[in-house]
Amino acid sequence: PESPPPPYSRLSPNDEQKPLDLSDSTLSYTETEATNSPNVTPGDFSDASTSPDAVKRSHWCNVAYWEHRTRVGRLYTVYEQSVSIFYDLPQGNGFCLGQLNLDNRSETVRRTRSKIGYGILLSKEPDGVWAYNRSEHPIFVNSPTLDIPNCRTLIVRKVMPGYSIKVFDYERSCLLQHTAELDYADGPYDPNSVRISFAKGWGPCYSRQFITSCPCWLEILLSNNR
Q1: In a domain, 39, yes or no
Q2: Is residue 217 in some structural domain?
Q3: What CA–CA distances, in Å, run from 202 to 27, 146, 211?
Q4: Residue 8 domain-assigned?
Q5: What domain count does the chain have?
Q6: Are residues 120 and 196 in contact, defined by beta-carbon separation less than 8 angstroms?
Q7: Is 81 strand, coil or helix?
Q8: Residues 6+ apart with CB under 8 A from 65
């Protein structure tokens, strides 16, 4: 099949975070796809967002990569149901952060980039968007549908290596009543945006109060309701 079954399909739907089944084909999806593709050679990272077939389909999200307050590279448009976002993934394809150049990177950013490794796999499912932590270090997630309604405290979820989390729930998003007076000190509020930091957390429980203080992070801009 074009889209292998997600690794959480055999697990309880009540668990917020679920361990990945290492025997599941989803883990090797990008490697297998690239190996079998006549257009991709080992070590070659193809850009699915610009393929002729992809242009005919509508995208479901754009991904921006940030280092502190600086966006690095262009927006990566996602058309496929799942996409790998990684620093180094042999024989893989997707959004390769290791290829994004920036002059005068700080040592903190360099150390954090070296921890991204296989990064994450984002998958669009009927119930929402799931993120699978494929790296060897935690990722940290903030999303409107993970926040507690009417709570002024920023909620940041820590996801350990080998676990997945539903970073965006479509049904919950429709039910949430976002009011205009919501005011987040770290920037404008987007009800269709998910933020994911690699290795470093932020928020009330961390020394970094804002995600712009994190060395390496992603902004997932969903096309839902746009």
Answers
A1: no
A2: yes
A3: 28, 15, 6
A4: no
A5: 1
A6: yes
A7: coil
A8: 71, 72, 73, 76, 95, 97, 100, 216, 217, 218
Tokens of 147: 């926040």
CATH number of the domain enclosing 83: 2.60.200.10
Residue with tokens 């296989």: 118
The rounded distance, in Å, linking the Cα atoms of 147 and 153 is 8
Question: What single string gives the DSSP state of each residue in 107-137?
Answer: HHHHHHHTTTTT-EEEEEETTEEEEEE-SSS
What tens digit of pLDDT does each residue of 158-193 get?
A: 999 999 999 999 888 887 754 434 555 455 668 889
For residue 221, give the 3-state DSSP assignment.
Answer: strand
- Identify whether the C-beta of residue 140 lies closer than 8 Å to the C-beta of residue 158: yes
- Domain assignment present for residue 77? The answer is yes
Give the 3-state secondary structure of residue 85: strand
Point out which residues pair with 194 in neighbouring strands. Answer: 220
Give the pTM. Answer: 0.73
The whole domain housing 210 covers 61-180+188-222
Whole-Å CA distances, 224 to 121, 130, 175, 218: 19, 14, 14, 18
* Terminal C-alpha separation, the chain: 30
Structure tokens given for 90: 């042999």
Instruction: Give me the phi and psi of 38, to 5 degrees please.
Output: -70, -15
pLDDT band with cut points at 50, 70 and 90 for residue 48? very low
Per-residue DSSP letter, 98? G
